[in-house]
Specification:
mainly alpha
Length: 255
Amino acid sequence: MDVKEILEHHIIDHTLAAPLSAGPLSLPLTKHFLMIVLVAAVIGAGLPLLRRSRSAGLAPFRSMLEALVLFIRDEVVVQNMGKKGARYTGYFCTLFIFILGLNLAGMVPFGATATGNLAVTGGFAFCTFLLVNLAGMREQGVVKYIAHLVPAGVPVWLYPLLFPIEVLGLVTKSFALCIRLFANMIAGHIVILSFIGMIFIFGAINPWLGVGVTAPAAIVLVIFVSLLEIFVAFLQAYIFTFLTAIFTGAAMHPH
């Protein structure tokens, strides 16, 4: 395989089993779908058990989980959405942990990064879009929420122009979240595979050049980028959660 085929093999989603069909609908078992199910199962079963556990050995992990929940509630949710936003803490904790789990799943041998799939990040962005609008309507009422899409004090004759722009802005915010998460998670894999591919490219020119010169430098760079990817996995999960809280808070409390 050439470098392009290697990249496609490790990044693009692949069907593992024949799809389950129900009329015109089909649900194939793919790598990314499998990762989503596994991560959801681990989170759904593991965290409640960890919370209820009284084992002394798991005490540090319970403390870490408590610190994470308190941080998301106080520094992400309440800070951007006000005290009424605390009711959404469960959603934001789930969002952060689920995205983080999917990001890190790609670092596991034979795993895959589901957040490197636009369909997956698009699903998260769609949930954000729904949350922003539903939370705004819940807080202000449907009529007031729609009326506040256009800033107060704008001349009436500008409403037909500004209203579609503001609606498009709501869609664009969510779309930007989708692209940001997808691009950051897929970029690290491309860089790592490119460094590994350089060993074989230069090795095809001269075996000693590939193994003796390129391989040591490439391995060091791969280790560095892999560690950087772990940091990016946490960072992108936080950014997605934080921006979702900002957008939701802006919808709940218009200025």
